[in-house]
Fold:
Amino acid sequence: MRRFRWDHNRDALEQIDNLHSSAREIGYLRVEFPAGGDGSRIPWLSLEPWTRSRAVTVAVVESGEIVSPALDVALCSDLVYLCPKVVLRLSTSTAPPSDGVIWALGRSGRAALARGLLETRDLNPTEAVVLGLATAEVAEDCPLPIPDDASVASLTAARDLMRASARGSSGLALELASFRLLFAAGDPEEGARAFLEKRDPKF
Structure:
């Protein structure tokens, strides 16, 4: 798993460019976010490519208060893990949420969007997970609950399904295409065989 650590003292746009370059390869890209942020905003045109990278982007937000621009990058990642005592400052009494935060709220659903736009209270990890803004709460320095040895086909299918907003017949078509991709890659057969033979799978 490739790793990157956000630095609040460095230029945000420069760091976004570095992340875009790192996320061009299939695999996981883990980005660690310490508490902090100066409240500046990232233009959506600079942030939007982060939401459609080839890599599966994984944000780990450490305990403490985090605000934009780091908050935008974290919440626009594919998987968002929050350490205990994280405080998400989505907006202030004088300014609405930034473009990246609004995009993340919209992706999470109506409840998250209403909470982020109509209330200025800070968000804690438990509420963020319930609203769908975060994947899970994890203890600091603990392994993340994601498989490091996933195959390229599995990662590709999981990435596309996580990002999909399709519903109805379009959603079913995407699910069927992902199912066929995985079977064509041989992952299900190897997984079942490895389980029966009590060994680690080799994708």
